[in-house]
């Protein structure tokens, strides 16, 4: 569960071609990181996978099933954004369970899933707090918890650590790596931070101006960058 296939994905906004033909296969359970400079199309590609944006052309399959026109809620995906977007008036527990409640999941089942996610993310003691009573790192963990309770086979992360200070960034990064091992889900993760990419990824996808420059394991890119752009971006001192 959770494999992803992109075929000739293109996206234009008016006259501007933002994604110019992306092909990519992500295997079940893989941790794939998209890196590339600001404006190269990372978020747009992620939003297309999630169904929040429609591709201009090309095909998307999840678990071998074409989802080109499948609405976001039916894709078996959960997305974690850079901004946590928690409901300020709801407790941590309610924030984590809300989407399930809206999907009509039974109350007992919601409680079980929220408790499990809270344990995974060490949020048990914070369940009755409101977002204003949490640190930035705790809020981001709640946002991740909100994704976990939906039990997706595919997680999408868009720069989830970029609003955290340096110390919290490292802690939360380790948390995400641990989650990947424990859940065995597929993760597609966007960052412009080389260290995050090198430490988290099974496979790095280097994007530049709407095209893939190179795909490979972190050390592969580090040792054999396909071109100067990749070398510069992965930080190999050639
Ligand atoms: P990244 O996440 O890599 O920084 P984005 O995917 O956000 O890049 O943006 C890629 C390009 O597409 C940018 O030039 C951005 O201005 C443009 N873009 C993104 N979303 C829209 C939109 N809804 N309408 C018009 N242009 C957009
Ligand atoms: Mg972005």
Automatic annotation (TrEMBL):
Entry keywords, A to Z: ATP-binding, Nucleotide-binding, Transport
Domain called ABC transporter: residue spans: 4-234
Keyword RNA-binding attributed: no
A GO term, aspect molecular function: ATP binding
Lyase as UniProt keyword: no
Domain of life: Bacteria
Family the entry assigns: Belongs to the ABC transporter superfamily.
UniProt protein name: Sugar ABC transporter ATP-binding protein
Organism: Labrys miyagiensis
Residues of the full protein shown: 1 to 238 of 333
